Amino acid sequence: MKKLFVLLALVLFAPIFFMPFYTDANVFVYMGRLLVSGYVPYVDGWDHKGVSLYLINAIGYGIGLKSIIGIKIIEMLLILYTFMRVFNFLKKEYSLLIAVIAGSFGLFTLKYFFDGGNMTEEYGALFSLLSLLLLLKKQVRTIDYALIGAFFVLNFTLRANLIAFWVALFCVYLVQLILKKESFKDVLMKFVKMGYGAVTIVLILGIYLLSTNSLHEFIDAAFTFNFSYSGTGKSSAISTILASVKKYHLGVIFIAGFIVAILRFLKDKNRKLELFLIFWIPIELYFGNISDRLYAHYYMMWVPLVIFSTAIIISEVRERIQMSNLLVVIVAGVVFVGSFYVPTYMTLKNWEWILLKSGNQSENVATHISDNYKDDTLLVWGNSSEIYNQTNKFSPTVFFYHSTFKYDTEFIRKKIEEFNQQVVEKKPALILDTKRNGMIHLDGANASEIDEGQKRNLKEFLRIIKADYVLKEQKFGFDFYVLKENE
C-alpha cells in the first residue's frame, strides 16, 4: 500500500519535470539565479518574498548545474519525504485505512492549490507538516525542538504570515500550563531548545544579509511592502475567510475537523493533536486570508489541516459508530468526488499537455531572442520572468518585473521613480512588451482599460519609451522595442 501511495504522489506531481513553472515561480527562479551568479537579492533584483525562498531556489539551481531541474528535484524529494512521514505517522497512530485516506486527501489538497509548483506556501505547508510530526513523536529530542525552531524562521522568512503553526503551538503550551499538564519550567526549556535552531538560521541569514548590505532592502521588500500590500482589516479578513471556504469548499473538511477536535478534546484533555487543531485551524484561516485576494496558492497552508482533520473525523466516527472498512471507503469516496474533482481534472490535463507535447510560447520567444538579440541587454515589461530564465539573461534594472506597479501607493510610486532612473541610466538594448493583462501596454493601446493611478504613475516611463525606443517587430503577440540609437 505504501508503494501505491508513492505512485499516487508521483502521478500528481511528476508533471513538474515536464512542464514550465508559472509566473510567480519563475520570479523566484530568477532570484535564485541571481544568488548563484553572485548578485544580491533585493539589491540587484527586486521581489517582495522572503530570502529563504531565494536560497531554496539557488540551492536547487546549483544542484541542477544551473538548471531549474535541480529546483524540481528538491520539490519532488521534499513532497515525497514529507508525505511518507505523514503516512507512517497516521498508520502507526490510527490505521492503514486512515493513513491512505487522510494522506491521499492531503496530496490532492496540495495539488488543488499547487499552481505549477515552487510556490512560497508549498514550502511553508511542508515545513509546517514536518514540524508537527516532530512535535507528535513519542520521545521529542532536543534536535527535534531545534528543527521546529529552524522551520519557524524559515517559514517566517519565506513569508511572514506562514507561521500559524507556531502561533498555535504557543497557544497549546499556554492551555497546557493552565490545565497543569505541563510545568512552566518544562515549557520554557522546550522554547529554549527551539531557540537553538531558530538562532542558527537567524545567524546564517543575518550574516548573509549584513555581509551583502541587503538587510534594509530585505526588510523593505519582505515586510514593509507586504504589509502595505495586505492592508486588510478584521472585518475584511472575516469576509475573505467566508469567501475562501465558499470558493474552495474542501475547507468544509477542516471546519468539520475543528468541531470534532473540540468534542474529542473535551472528552479527553490529553489529546494533543486535537488541542492543536482547535487553535491552528482558525489561526491559519485568518493568516491565509490576511490579504483580500483569493489566489489558489495561498491555501496550500490548508494541507495539514485537511490531513489531520480527516484522520480525527474518521477516528471519531468509528469510535461512535461501528463502521466497516468498506463503508468508510464509500463515504470517503463520496467526499473525494465532491471535494477533489478539480485537482483530478488538473492532473489529467497536465499529463495530456505532456503527452501531446503542447507548445510553449515563452520558449519560442526565448529562442527568437537568443537567435536575433543574443548580445543585447533585455528588459521584459510586465511579468514574464521565464524569458530571462530561458535566455540566461538578467535585467539591467533592479525591477525586472512590474506587476506590482499596478498598485497606486506611495511605496510603489517611489519604486517606479527608481525604475525610471535605472532605465535612463542603463538603457536596455531590447524592451519586450509581453502585453500583460492589467498593465498598460507600451503603445498605450489598452489605456482605456487601465485605472488612472497606474497611467499617472507610469506616464514618465511611457515618455522615456517614446523618446528613446522604436518598435522593431511584433512576434508571438509581443512587441519588440529597441533603442533608437542602435537602429
From TrEMBL:
Keywords: Membrane, Transmembrane, Transmembrane helix. It comes from Pseudotenacibaculum haliotis. The chain crosses the membrane at residues 58-82, 94-114, 120-136, 164-179, 191-210, 248-266, 273-290, 296-314, 326-348. The lineage of its organism: Bacteria, Pseudomonadati, Bacteroidota, Flavobacteriia, Flavobacteriales. This is Glycosyltransferase RgtA/B/C/D-like domain-containing protein.
